[in-house]
Amino acid sequence: MKKQKTQQSVGSLRILGFLFGFARPHMLPFMIGLLLYTSQQVTFSLLNATLMGGITGAILDGNPAGLLAAGLIVLGMLAVMAALLYVGVVLFAVGGLKTARRLQTKIFRTYVSADIEGRAHSGERLSALNTDVTHVNQLFDGALPGLLMWLFPIVTLSVTVFAIQWQVGLVTVAAGLFAMGGQYLFAKPLARIAKGTLEAVAAATKTVGDIFSGGIIARVFKLQENLQKMFGHSNDQLLRLANREAQVTGAQKLFSGISQLLTTGGVFVVGSILVSQREMSLVTLMTMVPMCASVAEALSAIGGAWAGMQAPLEAGKRIHGLLGGDNRVEPLSEQKAPAVSGGYRIETKDLTFSFKNTEKPILSGVNLAVEENQLAAFVGASGSGKSTLLKVIAGLYDCEALHITVGNKPFDSTHIEGWRGHFAYVDQSCALFNLTVAENIALGKEGATPEEIRAAAAEADADAFIRALPQGYDTPVGEVGGMLSGGQRQRIAIARALIRRSPVLVFDEATSALDAQSEGEVIATINRLRAKHTILMATHNLASIQPDITFRVEDGGVTVV
Q1: Which phi and psi (to 5°) does residue 70 adopt?
Q2: What strands lie across the sheet with 557-560, from one edge to the other?
Q3: If you average pLDDT over each of 77-86, 128-137, 272-281, which comes out highest?
Q4: Phi, psi of 553, deg, nearest 5
């Protein structure tokens, strides 16, 4: 049991280190703000002690001037405390927000650059991007400041209390340690609740994503009731966890109140005895009471702060798993496709590839060559590996070493973005974004001009139908291009690929979802493009094209037909 607790503690420390990695670029102002903010607790305790002692002494001495002096000192301390508090809150709050932004940036970049087969469910990613990051942000703008806030009075006021009267200090620390231990016991159930809550939110988000992406299928097969039950189950789980959390936090606050009452009572009892024995004055006792209360409250609050950190830590564990422990946020890559001499001849030698966590390779010992400006067709049964082969060649899977060359340039995994610059990719989904037609085409080239957009559309035989749309090139295409037909979406996707001006075009089953007329139009466009591009095309229908060379993909190998 002891070993298990130690492992859990190490795990929590590792997660804290992982999360602090995202705050590293702005750690100095964040920590300065945190120190200024948390120092208010000591300032407030000293202010309270000064006020209580000054008022009590002035009353006993019958000295109105002393009462006024105490009030002026308190007002001055209040002004200092307000200034420190304002600056501290601004600095550490902005630091926490910047940390959350870096965290979201890392998750988003990981999602868009992840291996295609390695992507988690989009609902899982959305949950991490929003809910988990929100919980982690509570670590920086709530739990951590709260923890450090109470360290100040423990260190400074404990020394002061013991210096004034060690018996009262001993009672104070003993009561505070009891309260802290009790608060610590609430951490474990709160951690379980936090973990369950995050998992339930992720499950609900997944279900919503499935409803949005498969709405038509849900209606056709009457799945609405089942999906509603799944969503309702996640919501019921969240309600149960919320009720449980309310019960635990209620008990936690009750315990905190009782421990505070016992501490204050103990200090008064011991202090009264010492006053009656003339070992301490009443003024000293009244001065010590707020300091003792702050020390005991601080010890109790540290235990409570650790309990409050459980939700951010559980969220951090989920993000840690999602990112593989990588907390580096690199600048966006500006790699350009390296210059290629010897033309754009594509060649693979003994190419072998397998997906992660699989033993059997999808591709094994693949040798092929496609000459510059050739149209190469790749055929084979569904699942044979045609699409996988094209994606591997285009660098769409993260691989350490692949025996592929374009011209005289070998594949280099350290310059993957530059390698991908040789290729433009069009698949059967022809995914469009909820932007205008022009904006979707311009995604293929940063800073594309209207002239370049129209030229790419004309080359893709899309200009005529785009001009006929209600708003022409400014027509919104809707989510995933839902406002357009399949053939229109495909031609816009081709235009997006062409504006990239990549020498190699990859068409991955680009016509499989089209009707005969739309397929014929797209094939005619592809045939016109072969004069200027090397084209790799996976297809089920050889009869519709006239390739220069045809490869059959079967059992992980490739043969020339």
Answers
A1: -60, -40
A2: 423-427, 504-508, 534-538, 375-379, 549-554, 557-560
A3: 272-281
A4: -100, 120
Over the stretch 359-416, which tens digit does the pLDDT of each residue have?
A: 788 888 899 999 988 999 999 888 888 888 998 888 887 666 667 878 777 877 667 7
Cα distance between residue 260 and residue 266, in whole Å: 10
494 — alpha (psi -120 to 50), left (phi > 0) or beta? alpha
Structure tokens at 445: 């080239």
CB atoms near residue 405 (< 10 Å): 17
From its phi and psi, is residue 179 left (phi > 0), alpha (psi between -120 and 50) or beta? alpha
Q: What are phi and psi of 212, to 5 degrees?
A: -65, -40
Q: Which amino acid is at 432?
A: L
**What's this model's pTM, rounded to 2 decimal places?**
0.62
Q: What is the tens place of the pLDDT at every residue in 304-336?
A: 878 888 888 888 888 888 777 777 766 655 555
Q: For the chain, which domains are there? A: 2-323 (1.20.1560.10), 346-560 (3.40.50.300)
pLDDT of amino acid 37: 75
Three-state DSSP string of 233-286: HHHHHHHHHHHHHHHHHHHHHHHHHHHHHHHHHHHHHHHHHHHHCCCCCHHHHH
Q: Which residues contact 432 (CB under 8 A, 6 or more apart)?
A: 440, 477, 480, 481, 484, 489, 492, 493
Q: Are 444 and 424 in contact (CB under 8 A)?
A: yes
- Which is more confidently placed, 538 or 81? 538
Q: Using the predicted structure, report yes or no on whether residue 277 has a pLDDT greater than 60.
A: yes
Q: What is the β-pairing status of strands 404-406 and 409-410?
A: antiparallel
